[in-house]
Write a structure and sequence with these properties.
CATH architecture of the largest domain: 3-Layer(aba) Sandwich
Strand content: 15-25%
Largest sheet: 7 strands, parallel
CATH superfamily of the largest domain: Glycogen Phosphorylase B
Order of helices and strands: EHEEHEEHHEHEEHEHEHEHEHEHHH
Helix content: 40-55%
Number of helices: 13
Number of strands: 13
Strand order of the largest sheet: 3-2-1-4-5-6-7
């Protein structure tokens, strides 16, 4: 099997890049596939993650296509230039399948190249989540965001397959092309270490660049928590422009002893192991990997049923609770239940660790291999 992945670059350490590295290393190392990765502008910088040495990289250096940058005109001109470049490259590689991983030029280029080669588009968000995310933006940004995705969704229809992260997105997205649901890989194996679930710590993790994680909801909720359980602490990990505003809210509510903003951390495994409950209140997601990570350390989760991901990841009342989106009373009820019942926490934690095995490289890798074989046989 010969696979080509098309991405903008592999410079920043993002979720898509990490998942791509995991997949590619599995396909090359385990399956013996020949994998090529085509970047548009790597700028000669080091790769963000470690890739198998057998992976072949190509960089088209899009910045060299036009020395004069004229908005709109340059974009369109680059599209047609890239179609020629990719056609030539794909003729040389002769891949069995071409995969696009993220939005950008590729959605206006790849579907129009080498018609005989099947093409897959991975979508790392969800249609419902796009609309909710846009609602959090200023009007001008919101209009531009929705307009971009309107065009992107039209482009999705031009791929042979669309691979989604969740069943909810497949059911509600009303996509016009063939769809498959394959979750992101977490790690090669579930960690050997398991949280004891004896510490009176609740953990949550996420970006503070906008209000999507609804950390303010958690902080306000903690005003109720401390009245009944003053010894329990909420530990929030992550950074971004909204951190100062959240700290101000903590100060106003006099919660400095019970709610701590830790910022970003490079030792998240230790923090997970110190926690007993994971709290999740996001407004919109694709597939929140932090929930999978929490399960892998044997931590029961309490989450809003936002679009999309929590209801796919958490088995309600088995390894955690998924409550009606925005229902703070229900969220508080389930949180208090887990705080009060240590044996329930441990029972759910054991099942959480077991259920996290669904997202290992081996299990998710097999699903991709099955799809590749299906597509190749249908050619």
């Amino acid at each position: 099997m010969k696979i080509v992945y098309c991405v903008g670059s592999l410079i920043g350490k993002g979720g898509m890049e990490k998942v791509l590295a995991n997949k590619v290393n599995y396909f090359v190392g385990k399956m013996g596939y020949e994998v090529h990765i085509v970047t548009q502008e790597q700028k000669g910088l080091p790769l963000c993650y470690e890739f198998d040495e057998k992976v072949v990289f190509h960089d088209v250096e899009i910045s060299k296509l036009n020395k004069r940058i004229i908005k709109g005109y340059t974009f369109i001109k680059n599209i047609f230039a890239l179609r020629k470049i990719y056609n030539t490259l794909f003729d040389k590689i002769q891949p069995d399948i071409i995969i696009v991983c993220e939005r950008g030029y590729n959605d206006f280029v790849i579907p129009f190249t080498n018609k005989n080669i099947p093409k897959i588009r991975e979508f790392h968000f969800a249609k419902e989540a796009v609309k909710i995310h846009a609602s959090l933006m200023p009007p001008k940004s919101r209009f531009k965001h929705l307009l971009v995705y309107k065009f992107l969704f039209k482009m999705f229809n031009k791929y042979d397959y669309l691979v989604l992260l969740t069943n909810r997105d497949k059911e509600n997205g009303n996509y016009k092309t063939k769809t498959e649901v394959i979750a992101n890989m977490n790690e090669s194996v579930v960690p050997k270490e398991t949280a004891s679930l004896e510490n009176k710590n609740v953990i949550t993790v996420g970006s503070m660049h906008d209000d999507r994680k609804r950390f303010d909801v958690q902080i306000n909720l903690w005003k109720e928590v401390v009245k009944k359980y003053p010894e329990w602490k909420l530990n929030i990990y992550g950074g971004g422009a909204g951190k100062e505003k959240l700290q101000n809210l903590i100060d106003q509510l006099n919660l400095n002893e019970n709610v701590i903003l830790h910022g970003n951390s490079h030792i998240m495994a230790k923090h997970y192991l110190d926690a007993s409950i994971f709290l999740f209140t996001s407004t919109a997601e694709g597939l929140p990997m932090v929930l999978i990570e929490a399960l892998s350390y044997g931590i029961p989760c309490v989450s809003f049923d936002c679009p999309t991901g929590p209801s796919d990841i958490i088995t309600n009342e088995v390894d955690g609770y998924v409550v009606e989106d925005g229902n703070i009373e229900s969220l508080k009820e389930k949180l208090f239940k887990l705080m009060e019942e240590s044996e329930l926490r441990k029972t759910m934690g054991n099942k959480a660790k077991k259920n996290a095995e669904r997202y290992t490289t081996e299990n998710i890798g097999k699903q991709w291999v099955s799809l590749f074989r299906k597509i190749k046989n249908d050619k």
